[in-house]
Amino acid sequence: MAEEGVYHKQRVPPFLRQLLAVSGVVMYMIGTGANIAFPGVLLEQLREPDSVVQLTPEHESWIASILGLALITGIVVAPFSLQGLGRRLTNQLSCLPALGGWALMVAARGPAALLVSRSLQGFAMGLQAASAPVSIAEYSAPKHRGAFLATIAFSFATGMLVAHVFGTLLYWRTAGLACGSFYALSLILVSLTPETPPYLASKGLYAECRRSFRWFRGHDYSSEKELEVLLNSQKNQNVVTTKVSKWTHYKQIARKPEFYKPTVIMMFMFVLFQVSGMTVVPSYTVPMMEEVSGGGIESYTSMLMVDVVRFATAVLACVVVNKLNRRTVLFLGIIISVVSLFLAAILLFLRDLGHIPEKYKWIPVIPTLVYIFGKTLGILPIPWAIAGEIFPLAYRSLGSGISGMFLSIMFFVIVKTAPSSFENIGVNGTFCVYGICIAICGGFLYFLLPETKGKTLYEIECHFKGINGELKRENTCEQERMLELGKVEGG
User: Fold this and answer.
1) What is the dihedral of CA 452, 456, 461, 465, to 10 degrees?
2) pLDDT value of position 489
3) What pLDDT score does 242 carry?
């Protein structure tokens, strides 16, 4: 009888194969972080009197926020692309408009070209916003999935840091060329890996699914059992096909708890993601930190302080998300963010009233950096980790698209209104609004969000269906017996 070990030695360990696949998505999301943060340095350079592109304040707010509108178009297309073309081809195709957007930005001679380039980047981001968590979750073994999904947060933070460093040291056209190169790397890495096993199983391509699964996960005992569960669950699902109209089909889906419960959870997750200031801060870091520090810290220095805190915390989050429960990390991040936002707002209010001495006017920077730490630790990684885990395979593309719609709409609304919010109610008032919104979303998620750490995607699906998901294996007794005898067919 074979031991619970490796049936076929692979020259490259499964973890490294999974890491290669995830790296392609990571490179893309670094580019996405750069997309979000680039206006923070681009607009500063374009405000110079001798700039070749002259912008009005209205142009500036549209350049920062149009990504949110363009995201919607990408997210509308994403479910059809993920379901029809697959994860791999969707990831490859999404690189093309992103590369085109950066190329157009580098060559831009006026506001219109900048807006078109940002729209192309936003469309590509919309495709990847739905595709990235799904792809990473389907590439990964359960024990690595948390850390791999947390790399989305790490990638965002890295991209923001890279954009601000390049934008500070280089002319904006050169910085744009450097930022765009991450998409070329992504395209190469994604092309080196096969399609994800769950997608192949959902299409009835069972032989290809076996090969892909074993390429990613090897041939050990537990992986082979998970493979058989995946294949049998999809075979059972693919057997029953009743001809109904599309409208009836979608109505039936909408009534299923395994669809609507994850969708509602992800709506709150992505609203939380945006109202925490996740995209506002990198877009308006310089003016925001100039106000917070009261001019006591040079603006570009404070911007890099924010970036370094965000980057270091994102690295920490990769470890924390894999070690601690998802709920623990999320609510820890929410509590830290809410408390530090209110504390920063109070200190800013007291400073405006003259109760803080001039030499200590920079003190609000401390709770602001703690807020950056809190939201990067919990609010940035957990929504993306949950997005990759929570939807059942049959509705993963559709659910990701619908919940992503909330992400893109809130992106546009929050970033577009941020300048007027800073002007009309001040940074302290804006911090209070964000703190209240974070607390409200956190309250809903406390009651809605289940724990997903350490569970297979099949077990999470069973949770929402209300059935026991302890790797149920109907009709797989014979496969298990064969596994124990070491007679599983080769990959």
Assistant:
1) -90
2) 39
3) 55
CA angle 117, 123, 125 (to 5 degrees): 100
Least confident of 51-60, 116-125, 430-439: 51-60
What is the token pair recorded at 75?
A: 């997210």
Residues in Cβ contact with 135 at an 8 Å cutoff, skipping those fewer than 6 apart? 21, 25, 87, 88, 91, 196, 388
Distances 289 to 51, 372, 400 between C-alpha atoms, Å: 24, 12, 34
Sign (positive/negative) of CA torsion 391, 394, 395, 397?
Answer: positive
- Nearest partner of 317 among 169, 114, 449, 151, judged by Cα: 151
Rg over alpha carbons for the chain, rounded to the nearest Å, is 23
Q: What is the pLDDT of residues 261-281, one digit of tens each?
A: 898 999 899 889 888 887 788
Of 25, 154, 141, 184, the C-alpha closest to 90 is 25
Residue 130 tokens read as 């739905």
106-125: average pLDDT: 91
Closest CA to 26 of 217, 195, 193, 183: 183
User: How many CB atoms within 10 Å of residue 181?
Assistant: 14
Long-range contacts of 298-307 (CB under 8 A, 24+ apart): 300/168, 302/365, 303/40, 303/164, 303/168, 304/164, 304/165, 304/168, 305/365, 305/369, 306/281, 306/368, 306/369, 306/372, 307/157, 307/160, 307/161, 307/164, 307/165
Q: Which of 424, 420, 426 is nearest to 345 (CA)?
A: 426
CA distance 269 to 264: 9
CB 135, CB 457: distance < 8 Å:
no
Q: What is the pTM of this model?
A: 0.75
Distance in angstroms (rounded) separating the CA atoms of residues 370 and 373: 5
Q: Where are the alpha helices (DSSP H) in 255-364?
A: 257-275, 280-283, 285-293, 299-323, 326-352
Report the alpha-carbon distance of residue 238 to residue 211 in Å, rounded.
20
Q: Which two tokens stand for residue 213?
A: 């699964």
The structural architecture, per CATH, of the domain 14-205+245-454 is: Up-down Bundle (1.20)
pLDDT mean across residues, the chain: 83
The answer to whether residues 460 and 390 touch, using CB atoms and an 8 Å cutoff, is yes
pLDDT digit string, tens, across residues 198-239: 999 888 888 999 999 999 988 877 788 888 888 887 776 655
